[in-house]
Amino acid sequence: MLKYFLIALITAISPVLLIGGCSTTSNNSDISDSPGPDVTNKILYGFTPFPYDLTLEAIDTVHDIILPNSNLYAIHYDRCIPWLEALNDSPFPQWIVDDWNDTKARIPDSHSVYLAIAPTANDRISLAPNCGPDGEDDIQPFPEEFDNARFNDDAVKQAYLNYVLRAVRHYDPAYLNIGIEISEMSLAAPGQWSDFEELYDFVFNAVKAQHPDLQISVSFVLQSLLLDRVANQVKPLLDKSDYIGLSFYPYGSEFGEVQGTPALPDQIPAQWRDPLDFVLSYTNKPIAITETGYTTKDIFLEEAAINFPGDEETQTMYVRDLIQIAKNNNYLFVVWFVPVDYERLLDKLDGHPEFFLIWRNAGLYDENVKPKPAWEEWKKFNE
Prior knowledge:
By secondary structure, the protein is of the alpha/beta class. Helix content is 38%, strand content 14%. The protein contains 14 helices and 13 strands. Helix 5 packs across helix 7 and helix 7 packs parallel to helix 9. The relative contact order is 0.14.
């Protein structure tokens, strides 16, 4: 999804932002390695700590909002990978070490961790870019071993495995996603799927050997799974996984249609109920909503001629319904992606791309950091 371009930009403002990034190495002695909480049978629910402004105060405020109203902490590392360092098991740049230590320090002992990382670039097709030494904006050319590499090349497989293992050792997550929205590779470049599946098998098996209790999978864009061709191609990989992860933004049907997926139902609440019902017939794997949201303002992208309709009443209905569906079907966890509307942030980004608007008003708090009606529904998750 295109939102990860926005994430990469926002995370550049501070190393303590917890969305996107690169992993750190296990042999950097200043990175903590403390154990996390045990997985329980209750449904976990939480947020990615997406900031609403380009300030440290906004980061702190978001945490003040989400931590008392969640029991899951979601981390997305989705910017770049220091490929050669990962391959050689050598130390990562200091900015990465600091970033990971700051991230770890913000996670309460009371919260389980969901960790999502990806070997792909934001297009979900290309190899993730190569991290440089001077921050997340410092993208370097690929080392020789990775130039024009395929996902099943030996160097890629070993480097990505090392990357994943270091991330797991650092955060001790309960749930791990090693292919964020990877269904989009099947959707846009199905010829590459077998390469990724080979990479997935290699990493999954090696991580399981060291961490047998860790629940490992990938995430799929739910709307893309409604296309039979995609659903059929990715099913063997899902069958080997511990759970099915779903990325689902029900108000974004037109965006999916442009990519070639079937349309979501027009009517509310069939717009989300029908796709979620489909998942129950598609697999018997445990279900996790790895990211979701619903806008409370209509959005129209003029350049793309795409509508994203929404309002507070529909968002409230979606949150209420989602909680009940999750409980009725024993979902593992639910992650709401944007806690607070980020209009303030966009006001400071002159000339930002139009697609930054897509998730702008999908928060459960508005741009004035006031709770929307759906927030009262979210707080019922723990009842």
